[in-house]
Amino acid sequence: MARVLVTGGAGFIGSHTVDLLLARGYAVRILDSLQPRVHPLGKPDYVPPEAEFIQGDVANPADLDRALQGVDYLVHLAAYQDYLPDFSTFIHVNTESTALLFELIVARGYPVRKIVFASSQSVAGEGKYRCPQHGVVTPDLRPEEQLQGGAWEVRCPTCGIEMESLLIDEEVARPHTAYGVSKYAIELLARSLGARYRIPTACMRYTYVQGARNSFYNAYSGICRIFALRLRHGLPPVCYEDGQQRRDYVNVADVARANLLAMEEPGQVHRVYNVGGGRPVTVLEFARIMVDAYGSSLEPSVPGLYRLGDTRHTISDISAMQHLGWQPAIPVEQNVSEYLEWMSRYEATQEYLEEAERAMRQQNVLRQVRQPA
Q: What radius of gyration, in Å, describes the C-alpha atoms of the chain?
């Protein structure tokens, strides 16, 4: 029986990947630090007892070395993400742990057959656009002055006209955040060290992953969490910008399937794969899906707020994963229903709502338009 190490296996994507691995007959070992801001109550009750569990830090050589012993495959999902400006922590946890993995595998001669790494669509930054005059562009983030004026669409850096958003393929790499840089560095390490030491790798660029077990405690847990919490407390979902920004939401069960498929695929090495939902959904449309699922009569609010650093449109080209036989199977509406069911087990949720908004305002991430468009 092949043994798979899943780092971050008590987390959102990790736990679903663990469940699927066990269902497919793999022996599973989990390495997870149970970071208090994500798991303040300790190890979650959904972690299966048949999976070996090691509490430890992926950036700690002793912890990681212990976890690597006797492993055939590795799914490296442990990561740090937050609104906090502790940029070095992104690099330390996300990138240094990847370098440490290769270091230990090479030094100890561990016979790892393949490593699957969690990357992110944040590697692509603002994405890919077409200007009718200047062709395809991978632009920088929208200027603060433009956002302050309530002008939301991405403009050509040469002529200044609004551009058409395109599907983002895996060749686009223009990260604009410390988190995105840390994930791109993982891709570079996987390709260079993996090729040099003949360790097959796959890097999975997840888009907006949704579903049950997405931590209630972490303010960075995404749109589904914050909209659900507001509705639960009789408040309308707040859509930033004009609500027309398009997103690519994918269910965590589809992500787990993609992870296993990439792990088991023998013919591709050192590939980067986009893992998205295959369906563009505007933020305003998503808000209405959630309002309907909750049975609320509230209307989504569009108050002219924006988050500094947000991208405008993020839709992945998922053709590379489709060529492996993968297809997203779960619609956005089911993402929402699963999350609302998951949320129903929690009672005291007001503090989580307040913490998310406090964190964004404290870090000056959430800002108000000063001039009408």
A: 20
What span, in angstroms and rounded, lies between the C-alpha atoms of 176 and 173? 10
Q: Where are the domains of the chain?
A: 3-128+167-305+314-365, 129-166
- CA 51 vs CA 28, 34, 64, 79, 176: distances in Å: 5, 15, 17, 20, 37
d(CA 61, CA 75): 17
Asked if residue 237 lies in contact with residue 299, where contact means CB atoms within 8 angstroms, the answer is no
Are residues 225 and 359 in contact, defined by beta-carbon separation less than 8 angstroms?
no
Segment 312-365, tens digit of pLDDT: 999 999 999 999 999 999 999 999 999 999 988 877 666 666 666 666 667 777
Q: Tokens 């790892």 appear where?
A: 112
Burial class (CB in 10 A: 0-12, 13-18, 19+), 306: buried
pLDDT tens column, 185-231: 999 999 999 999 999 999 999 999 999 998 777 666 689 988 998 89
Looking at the DSSP bridge assignments, the partners of residue 4 are 28, 73
Q: For the domain 3-128+167-305+314-365, what is the CATH code?
A: 3.40.50.720
CB 316 within 8 A of CB 205: yes
- Alpha-carbon span 148 to 306, nearest angstrom: 9
